[in-house]
Specification:
With 662 residues, the chain is α+β, with helices and mostly antiparallel strands. The chain is built from 9 helices and 35 strands. The protein is 29% helix and 28% strand.
Length: 662
Amino acid sequence: MFKLTTKEVINSDKMASNMESSINIGSESFFGFSCFTCQEDDKNTKADFYCEECYKFYCSKCVEDHNYLYKKHLILDKKNISQWRETYVIQLEQCQEHKKEKLTGFCEDHSQLICHACHVHNHQKCSHVVLIADKVKDLHQKGDFKQLSATIDTQYQKLIHKKDNLEENMKSIEKSYNKILERINALRKTINDALDQLEKNTKKELDTLLETTRASIQTDIENCTESIKNITCLKEGWMRIKEKSESLNFIKYRKCFVHSIKVDAVLQEITKNNEIKLIFRPDTTIQQNLSTLSVLGLSFSSVKTVQPAQRITQNQNKPEASSQSDPGNQTTSRLKENKNIPDPSSSRKYTRGNRTSDLTKTGQVSDLESSSSDQLVKGFQPGAVSKPDQIIKMKSRKNYGVKLKGDKYNFCVITGICEAATGGLLITDQNNRKVKLLDQTYNVVAHCDLPNEPWSMCSIDSSLVAVTVDNNDVHFIEVTNGQLIKDRILNLRHYCRGITHQHGNMYITDGRALYLYTLEGRMVREMYRDTSCGRPGNKPVASCAVSPDGDRIYVANMSSKQLVTLSRDGTVISTLTDTALDSLGTQLGLHVTDSGQVLMCVYWSSTIIQVDRDGRQILAEMVTKNDGVTRPISVYYSKHTGSIIVGMGENNKIIVFKALLE
């Protein structure tokens, strides 16, 4: 600690008083460089010039007086401000509060550099005030200067390395961008070629129709011409009858009569054809499908650490080795590539990669109060649903085993089913904490371990699925070349149970409510909440599903034994209460087909029912325990194979039904 003498205190008070008056007289702004001459006159003026000989700053007015007295001094203007180093040191040592005082001490209580005046007026009662010289000596003894220098050098090297990586990354992104443009152009060419072929086929059919119609009309014209010629001859012959023989007259009459009958038949045939027209009725399927799309495919950033799952030989149907989950490995690799996924979606961006995106904890997730209550993530044009109430009937069934040799438990619990782009299936085995990939013959060919029990699964695009596990996480898993790759993890602020996705909108339940999320993990709004009084810890809002056009969201409430149907904005359209739902159980599978049929598993009664699109009535009991189903908890309709796949609790098999639409 340093102490001031009585004389220094008096001088400091006087300087402080003069300083206060100068600040009041001059401008209230503080300049990084102030004019030295103006400061002598108690003015605060911004400096525009610096003299290397005098080591002083001057404003544009005072520099003229200086140049008159010192013609040989080198003056630097603000273009050369980087060379104002000597004076910068002087300026650095200047107290910001007391401009004419030099910083001489350091208050450790306030962690603040101070001058003598600061000590007298503001830091008299502070117990830890030391001279800067003593502080520097102490830092040297502790080696803090060297340590800080080494830290700065390390940070400098890291920044240089990071900058180089980012520049390299930018070049890679530009290359990826050009490749994506090429793929877009190639896709557009493929579409154009297909449309050209359709146009060619349509014109060919039209040409054939024209020739056929033209030939028919030409035949009628020729018949008319021939009949006109014949009837003209007969008419002329009839008019020339002068025979006195009645028999000859009758013969001529008879010939004219017979020919008249033939002409009448020709006229009737031509009249029957009437006027032929060519009509074209466009097939609106293409236009309807295009109207449901907003882009040709998804474009998003991909940050990926590849962790391939175990491959399994198809003929042995068992894993080579059990892959281990790594929930703690949150290493984020550099941006490698951009991917285009041929699935209609919004241009909403999310980052792929094996990492946890804890958006809710960093404040990037909007609160329910601040979320928009009227707008979803991305609008989806209606019209994609066709015959949503067409009843599905079962024709035949086969059982397929899905248990692996490396599974921890004897029984599988299949809580989710999705279809891959290759035509294979993905299933979630809750009991063994795995996602399993099945080929087109329903053999397990790969699997991926999860840190907790999976509750639900939905498709994001043709090669990516999202899985909720028994905590606050949503795991994204990609299907690549017959392998399951851990992509990224979303860590939400609530428990995750049911999940479904449609056109960039991700719906997730936490057991009490249904929320709408973006693919990046931003909460848009709360869609539905169970208000019934249940026992603590009860989670009745378990499953959810969405229609292909996004106009209907279905939520199963196991506590009230109801199926709740919501509109796009969260309005309750209907609440289905039926005795058939009394056996819902604690695990419930909901699924909506690509055509809009709503399928629902009833756990305890071992049935699967079909509900109408608006969720007002049960249309049919599709599957019962007589069909070999016990405690179904997941159901899926494959449009590729026309099959219904059922997953069950405590069962090592899935059942595949051949479906028939009535």
